[in-house]
Records
---
Amino acid sequence: MSLLPTPSRISTVDRVPGAVESGTAIRRKIRTTKFFGDYRKRSGAVGQALTWLCGGALALNLLLVILIMGLLAYNGLSYFWQKDLMELTLKDGRRILGELWSEEKSAAETGTRAAAAIDRIRLKIGNRDVGGLDFVWIDAKDIARRSRPADVVMLERLEWGNFYGTMAELRQGGQVLAAGPEAVWKAFGPLHERKLQDLHRIEKLEKGEIGDVNFQIERLRLAEKKLDIEKVSDAERARRKAALEREVAVAQGRYDRLAARLSQMRDRYQAETLVMKTVDGETKEMPVGTVVRAIRPNVMGSLAKLRLYGSRGVEFVAGDPRESNTEGGIFPAIFGTVLMVFLMSFAVAPMGVLAALYLREYAKQGPLVRMVRIAVNNLAGVPSIVFGMFGLAFFVYLVGGTIDRIFYPESLPAPTFGTGGILWAALTLALLTVPVVIVAAEEGLAAVPRIVREGSLALGATKFETIRRVVVPAAAPGILTGMILAMARAAGEVAPLMIVGMVKLAPTLPLDGRPPFLHLERKFMHLGFHIFDVGFQSPNVEATTPLVFATALLLILVVTLMNLVAIMLRNHLRRKYAGSAV
Amino acid sequence: MATSPDSPASSPADSRLRERNRRRETPRKRLVADRAARWVVSAGGIGVIASILGILIFILAEVAPLLFSARVEAGRKVTLPEVGKIEAVLSDDYRTHVATLDEHGVVRVVRMRDGKVVYTSEAMAPTLLAATVPPQTHAFAASTSDGRVLLKSMGFGISFNGQERVVTPDETPPVFLDLDLQKRPLGAFAAQLDGDGNALAAAALADGRLAVARRSIEKNEMTGEATESLGRAELDAPGRITALVIDPAQKNLYAGTAAGDLLWWTLQDGQPGDLHSANAGAPITALTLLLGGRSLAVGQENGALSVWFPVNESGDTVRLARTHEFPRHPDAIRRITPSQRDRGFLAASGGRLGLYFSTADRTLWTGTVPVRDVAALFYTPKADGAYVAGGGEVAEIDIHNPHPEITARSLFGKIWYEGYAAPAWVWQSSGGSDDFEPKLSLTPLLVGTLKGTFYSLLLAIPLGVFGAMYISQFMHPAYKRYVKPMVEIMASLPSVVLGFLAGLWLAPRIERVVPALVLMAIGLPLCILLAGFLWSRLPRGFRGRFPAGTEALLFVFVLAAGAALCLRLSAGFERFAFAGDFKTWLFNATGLGFDQRNAVVVGLAMGFAVIPIIFSIAEDAFSNVPPNLVAGSLALGADRWQTVTRVVLPSASPGIFSAIMIGFGRAVGETMIVLMATGNTPIMDWNPFNGFRTLSANIAVEIPEAPHGGTLYRTLFLAGLLLFIMTFLVNTVAEIVRQRLRERYTQI
């Protein structure tokens, strides 16, 4: 469970339910029986009190764990739940519509017990394009009436956040298609469906064909630049340049045609507009297609809300972020994290296993190897930010800079590999986690009984054959556990990645349909960094906190799941090999 | 192992024998594979281990250039024969051309590559008495024998002819300012010229008075017409003036006298205003202003060299303070010239030349002057070289001085920075302007690191160690098996999540309930004791039905209830103990401020991250105490608590020590939590309600902005190296202690 590096720290994971009883376990059992048989022996009063305090320390640990997990689970999961919309009529006649966000009690001001009731509430009023502010604080004593009108609508939009109000009209150009809340609500549904399809088509065109053409034009441009610095005769250069220019012209022509088509599609997509009325009577007109979702929370049943909950959950996991990451989904971050962790495992597995094999099987055991072993163990305790610095200096500046100079001189001074990217991030994390793998693998190798090796050797197998066919399979659980622990650590690590390759918003995924398909030099998004960035560097922190909670919950689920799998796998394999190999 | 000799067969019997042996032998292919595998694994394994250990070496290599002092080498030397005495010299940015001004007022531009004079101006004045290049300008200033000061801006236009860089000196006419209306020869003088043509000059007159003359250019924005206005002031000088300098902003005039007094006038539109003075001892022979125009480098008759700058005293008074001191030259300082890049400067006396850095009191290099009778000294614009002229010779000096700011003292000691009232430890790596003085003291960051670590260990050590003691000594294994992984699962929480919770959830709430925290520190243990007491009063038969340790699980609820009660009583307690408002009380009672993101928040969050580490290792240590020791103690009649404190705890103490050490290592290097849960202000104090900045957070904040290979970049690597060494040492000590302990236990 713990991600700690040293052998005994890893071995703390061993003693979980279901572990095979080794000699020490049995000894411990005998010991504990003896030990607790005597437990009832009374201690002195002071001793008793101090024992309780120790118990209190343990209880406090547990309470903290429960609190934090509960806090994350509650806040993370409630993010998708739609609250009712509340309309407040204030004593001065103003009306405010929004979602109840939080209530604050502050007895400190008046000091009487009665004042401990709610005295301020915070509403999310949305409508940033109308009022500018997402939230308002209202004094409870100013409120004259609270109500939950049935026909108020909440719009989730592509831009400007949520809108709360009533539907007034549906227009197409100057022509009114429907008017009045009910009529518009009815007409809106099917129309909105069509517009979403339009939007989908537009996105497909943009990301697909137009993206391809852009990619091609960029490649041709680089080819032209490369031609400039290449050593070829002038005639040859002119000839090739002309060919390139022809290609550019063709691509440009294609681009122009696609762009024309796109603008046509956009016109159609934006043809119908929805006029919304805010609670204080202002109207706002917006294209129907910019609405992500329109709901009437106050008349939704629990089942409908649950469905909405599910669909929001799916959007969160599978959708792209909107509004500079403060809304929408976190798919690119999940994708980036997973891809990076996989790349890292490809690097870390051979490294860790080779080093462990060498240390345990081939190196002459002595004080030097012992020292190396301690040093490797302790590298896992070196702060991750130091690895990040190393990654920046070594991978990005030294290796990446050299690669750029040799292979990509045409795009300089814009760096290709000479800047943070997913490959460098993966390699940096591989270095960071390789001690974990080495320690676990070594432990696994050490646990293979000598009898087994000697049996294999006696049957005529060479040392390598023994290792390959007998030792490594028997040690596989240890190695695999180490790998999973390494992956879990990599998934949660942020500090080094801040330096070597993450960005707020990556326009393209590092894996796509254009050659060479896996773009190792690209920057990527990461769940952990997403938490840091959205939580601390977004302009509207209050509104985004729930989203960060949801992201944090997801990250923790992933990491904890990996840890649990590591433990279970280890136990499973250990049982299996306990029967066969020994 | 088997090898197959390939000798030719001698007899049929031999060959049969060989045939049989060969069948028994391991086939060659497998042996080769075995050999190859040994090579591959060994090479790969050593490679991996070497490369991860190589990280340290690589980081050392990044830091190493900081340790090297400046490298100074004599470069090209050009002799200009048929020329008068050279009075001043300057060069272009790329050091391809050097302009000289000789005593007849002739400017010559020399191409350094071949020593050819590519440009010669007409004589600008009858005879020059002295000339200089004013600080931070690209102009010659000279005093004439007829009471005037001449200023000529020397620009170098650069154009490209194919690949070749062609440098052409520009042809702006010189500016003359009349200092002495009676046209007597001038004494010491100083001048400044800015990009718009505004000029200011000051000079000591023959009668001992001081004259200041000014030319200002008013540009009409609409028509682009420039109107020139002239101004002049004369005043009595308190003593014979031997050196003068004007700052680039033309707002301050500094003078040195033969009596060793430093005089400082503020200038208002060219009119001298307030006078401040300070005594430096020996007569002053050379003055200049370092980059930024605040630090005054002073050279004296007795060879003393020092830097002064205005310091705000209490109240509104300002005085010139001698803030940096450098080793003496054997004879009088003749020329000082500042760098245009940093707070460095060059100083020349008769035969010696020195390169100094003001901020760090650092003497980077001293050596002999490569020309006889030094008359002019120029530090090149990129601070990569210098030109010295004397007689008819111009000598070039190459200076390689990438990191002058860094000394052990500037990293860890107190440094008197410009504008500070006293020496201080400051980290401030960048400022608003190019002439900012970088302040790279690691001390505030080290203190911040230790502060964060201290507050987190304050929480983590008792909770981790005592929790582990309880679970291993007092709790039934049936519980332990579930409870232990539950605490350890905390270790897998990514620190970014903890940081986020601390910064955005906890910090604003803590701010409101500090009194409740105080209350909890007292109240929760009382709750536990009370609950324990009540539990012990329950009938023995009832308690006996539960395994040992049940009460600790009950305590979870007790604590939850107790904490809720404390929160509820918070406001009342605040009125009672802190006069209604904690923050005001804190400020009134102790003068301490309160930040929302403070050390308490970090202590809680980072403590939470460290608890499982300490817990896990300490629990191991407790559990591994040989059972016969415990059994012996109990058999001798000691009770549980006595056994635990007198037998188990002492034997497990090395293990607990290493648990704490490893927890310390983790807290020292933790980045995300401190980054998110403190304000990251590099201040030095131990106030638990202030923020701080740690080494690791500092790296995360600054390294993306640090130019590759620059001083800041390398200093950050040094901070990283410190972290590396600190954690590595601590972990190694902990590991060795633990291994020893394990060996000892196996012997028992």
Note: Chain A touches chain B through 121 residues (CB under 8 Å).
---
Amino acid sequence: MAITWRKDIDKALDDARAQKRHVLLDFSAAPM
Amino acid sequence: MYPDERVARFIQDNFIPARIHVKDQAEDYRRYAQRYNAQWTPTLLVIDSQGTERHRIEGFLPADDLLAQLTLGLGHSAFVQERWDEAERRFREVVDRFPKTESAPEALYWAGVARYKGKGDVAALAETGREFTRRYQDSSWAKKASVWRS
């Protein structure tokens, strides 16, 4: 199972507010 | 990254996953690293629906430890929002599913506090204090809970 990571952080935070969900924000240096 | 199936499923089921790459998204990285005071990679933040950070994981963790930390973060988030039943459930989930992780004694401590706050049940603290005499005796959380036994 692959994780669907969002790149648009503002949109992710907006969606979290609308859906009353948590965001998991990953600051990463791993190869993409 | 996160090849463990359990980790991937937990993240997908419990969060809106968002990632900023330090090089590929340098401008976003600077902006959000400043906003959330992230100074290292990997840094994982559990952010609630209002945009407030509720838990932070810095550095790599094996799958069980990461799952325990993510669950602990959801417990802390529920706790500060005074959703006591949910908080206790999350904390006990850490203890039950990941009893050998470093998160477990912390979760056991907060499970007792969440029960006390949610039910007004002082006995929950005493029981938690006694539980620490049976497990995690060497943890700092056992020391913190020791006052509840008397």
Note: The longest helix of chain A spans residues 9-19.
